[in-house]
Q: What sequence folds into this?
């Protein structure tokens, strides 16, 4: 997903400029899904500050049924467009949720979870609010250190710390967004999370997600492309729209 901080971040007492990601735009006439997509699977997308003020009625007309909106990163960044995106999506009839981009080398999982919930990552059982999501993947600021300097044991402990705090604050375990490769490299392909956390898997080079990380037998969301008909990254939900509503409601 997009890392969209534009401020300066501290690391080891020194200031470094945050890297800027490419803006992902809506490609007119692009496919609404990967080849072979069942018509019953709702399409959606995820957005961050790169998409700025999204035209939500147009996104809904273009096939969006759900969206995840970036809320926070670490404990010192909040998406300045969050409320326009999050509330605008709901006003247009989309099921929406918030996600947090993790930087496990900067603070504890519990601390980042509290910051996330305080800045948009809450959940309510209204059928229109997706559970909070944790985006945990390669370190975008240090290419050589894909796992943020954490061992497999410390990384899994960090994820549990985040998850436990989100559960305490919201009553839901977070959805985990990751890739098969990162999960194997940085958690040792831990199977400890699969039974209690829905999986949001990213794979952009195939017509199906393929192998899944860490003991998950099924994916809940699949991010299959970084551009397409909808603003931002393109996603599918694995079930029907009715099941998506039920999932949002916590059933």
A:
């Amino acid at each position: 997903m997009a890392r969209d901080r534009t401020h300066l971040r501290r690391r080891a007492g020194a200031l470094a400029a945050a890297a800027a990601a490419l803006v992902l735009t809506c490609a007119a006439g692009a496919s609404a899904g990967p080849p072979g997509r069942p018509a019953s699977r709702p399409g959606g997308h995820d957005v961050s500050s790169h998409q700025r003020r999204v035209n939500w009625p147009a996104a809904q007309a273009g096939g969006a049924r759900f969206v995840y909106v970036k809320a926070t990163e670490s404990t010192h960044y909040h998406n300045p467009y969050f409320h326009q995106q999050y509330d605008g999506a709901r006003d247009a009839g989309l099921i929406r949720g918030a996600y947090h981009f993790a930087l496990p080398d900067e603070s504890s999982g519990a601390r980042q979870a509290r910051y996330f919930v305080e800045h948009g990552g809450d959940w309510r059982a209204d059928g229109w609010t997706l559970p909070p999501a944790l985006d945990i993947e390669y370190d975008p600021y240090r290419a050589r250190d894909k796992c943020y300097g954490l061992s497999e044991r410390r990384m899994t402990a960090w994820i549990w710390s985040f998850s436990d705090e989100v559960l305490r604050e919201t009553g839901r375990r977070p959805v985990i967004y990751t890739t098969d490769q990162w999960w194997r490299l940085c958690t040792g392909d831990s199977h400890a999370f699969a039974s209690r956390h829905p999986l949001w898997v990213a794979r952009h080079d195939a017509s199906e997600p393929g192998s899944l990380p860490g003991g998950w037998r099924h994916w809940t969301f699949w991010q299959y492309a970084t551009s397409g008909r909808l603003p931002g990254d393109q996603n599918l939900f694995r079930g029907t729209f009715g099941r998506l509503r039920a999932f949002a409601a916590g059933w």
About this structure: The longest helix spans residues 152-170.
